[in-house]
Write a structure and sequence with these properties.
Elements (H helix, E strand, L loop, with lengths): L3 E6 L4 H10 L5 E8 L8 H4 L10 H4 L4 E2 L8 E4 L3 H13 L3 E4 L15 H4 L16 E4 L3 H14 L4 E10 L5 H7 L13 H12 L2 E3 L2 E3 L4 E8 L6 E9 L5 H10 L4 H4 L9 E3 L8 H4 L8 E9 L2 E8 L3 H18 L3
Parallel strand pairs: 1-2, 1-4, 2-3, 4-5, 5-6, 7-10, 12-13
Antiparallel strand pairs: 7-11, 8-9, 11-14, 13-14
Helix pairs in contact: 1-12, 6-8, 6-12
The protein binds NADP nicotinamide-adenine-dinucleotide phosphate (NAP).
The site of NADP nicotinamide-adenine-dinucleotide phosphate has 29 residues, from α1, α4, α7 and α12.
Length: about 350
């Protein structure tokens, strides 16, 4: 099949770069437009971007001219990697014009008829797009906050077996989660910063929607209380989460580890180009997972669970998620692939 042209908006940012790298050689999509702010518009991509990823800028895009965000984009698919305030303004305009918009931003994640997807966990929620705003010829699909991508992936399989009541989550978040601007401004060397703007609210609000049940035109939230504490730590990429999961009395650490070990997404999801056969890796070594060693497994799409311990009704564990890939660029790409596999462009 001929490849589908896509636009990457926010192409010079931390997530945008990871997406441009992931799209290089993609079997279904080809990058047609690279869009960023006025600062970058008109420059060659290689001159506009401060490339922070391993390897060099993909040669097929390095000499492309970066477009201004006011450009009338012609691609059927827009991959949006801009901040939430800009997304709130632009994404509905693109949807109104008929584009399929796949967004990393938080602006529409909790909108009742916008899917908030982790395909391995809640692919059925994609059906919400049929109830989209009446003025939208296209639609918006979102992926969760980068920590939530790891948290909900870990909780999802457990909710199929037990009722969960409460989750305490402490995050140790990499600096690339702050984006390129934030990164430059963070006093992170020799430091831990005990607050990340807006993060704890997202950890409380997004998982109940992802883990919830589709009921007609809305999702009924999964009734779990989440108690988060978020910290920025001097790690380049990869967010680590320490969880205490409270639920049914027959949920033991051993059984929870088995559930994670046995977890497989539906065949059609894992066969998507960015899908992985085993999206959860369970570690028995007491000193794993570690971001520096483990974050890149499965091209960054694997969520790691280790240090599984505790007692009946209360399971403790450590989760690692690659914030730029499973938590952002890989997530938006997987959602776009899911959409195209269900409704060809
Ligand atoms: N970093 C993560 O781990 C992560 C994870 C999940 C979700 N997200 C979300 O993904 C989005 C992007 O995050 P990021 O970390 O990649 O941020 P970033 O590194 O700060 O990049 C922001 C991008 O937006 C562009 N931009 C800024 N103002 C613009 C404007 N007025 N018009 C058009 N483009 C504009 C920037 O272009 P210039 O270079 O021209 O300024 C840049 O390409 C945010 O919503 C963030 O919350 C991030």
């Amino acid at each position: 099949m001929s490849r589908i042209p896509v636009a990457v908006v926010g192409a010079t940012g931390a997530v945008g770069q990871a997406l441009v790298a992931a799209l290089h050689g993609h079997p279904w999509f080809t990058v047609e437009a690279l869009v960023a702010s006025e600062r970058s518009a008109g420059l060659k991509y290689r001159d506009a971007v401060r490339w922070v990823l391993p390897g060099s800028i993909p040669p097929d895009v390095a000499d492309r001219t970066v477009l201004d965000v006011t450009t009338d984009l012609q691609t059927p698919i827009i991959l949006s990697c801009i901040d939430a305030s800009l997304a709130r303004e632009l994404e509905p305009q693109w949807a109104q014009r008929g584009h399929r918009v796949f967004s990393n931003a938080s602006a529409f994640r909790l909108h009742p008829t916008v899917p908030l997807l982790i395909p391995e966990v809640n692919a059925d929620h994609y059906a919400l797009v049929q109830y989209r705003e009446s003025t939208w010829k296209g639609f918006i699909v979102t992926n969760p906050n980068c920590c939530v991508a790891g948290l909900a992936m870990a909780l999802g399989p457990l909710t199929k077996r037990w009722s969960l009541e409460r989750v305490y989550v402490t995050t140790f978040q990499a600096v690339s989660g702050a984006g390129l601007q934030g990164l430059a401004a963070l006093p992170i060397a020799d430091n831990v910063i005990p607050w990340i703007a807006g993060e704890e609210e997202k950890l409380q609000k997004e998982p109940p929607k992802i883990l919830g049940w589709l009921q007609g035109a809305r999702v009924v939230d999964y009734p779990v209380e989440i108690i988060p504490s978020c910290y920025r730590v001097p790690v380049r990429h990869g967010h680590t989460l320490a969880l205490v999961i409270e639920g049914d009395a027959d949920m033991t650490p051993e059984r929870a580890a088995e559930v994670w070990q046995d977890f497989r997404p539906p065949d059609w999801v894992r066969q998507l180009p960015s899908g992985v056969g085993r999206p959860i890796r369970v570690w028995t070594e007491v000193d794993r997972p570690q971001p520096a060693l483990d974050r890149d497994e499965g091209q960054g799409m694997v969520v790691h669970v280790g240090r599984v311990r505790g007692q009946a009704g209360r399971v403790l564990c450590t989760v690692l998620v690659h914030n730029l890939i499973r938590g952002a660029a890989g997530a938006v790409l997987l959602n776009a692939e899911l959409s195209v596999s269900l409704n060809p462009v």
